[in-house]
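Morning F.,

Quick status update on the modeling queue. The single chain you submitted on Monday has been processed. Sequence for confirmation:
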Amino acid sequence: MGGHVDSLLPSGDVVYKLVSGADNMEIAVYKALKEDKQLRDLVPCFYQTHLEGCRKYIVIENLLSKFHNPHVMVLKMGTRTYLESDEINTEREDLYNKVRVQLGLVSELS
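Structure tokens below.
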């Protein structure tokens, strides 16, 4: 399981994913995808929301539950690894070099 610390709680065939933000946009997207006949088989099935204290979770299908020893790759699409609010104005060469090392394109960088 990947994600921010304490944001994903796997529980058998489902995952409890902490809802980020107060706007419930993520819930609306999962509900819309659940109703879309062309897209619903491409994303985890959305089941419900779950409140635990002051934390709100979405309950979605655990796509890895049927695999014995899954290997997962996280692919982030885009040209940056930060939010607009972070106000970072420089390129992150360190992240680029880290990926190059991980892929074996270069040996450790100094």
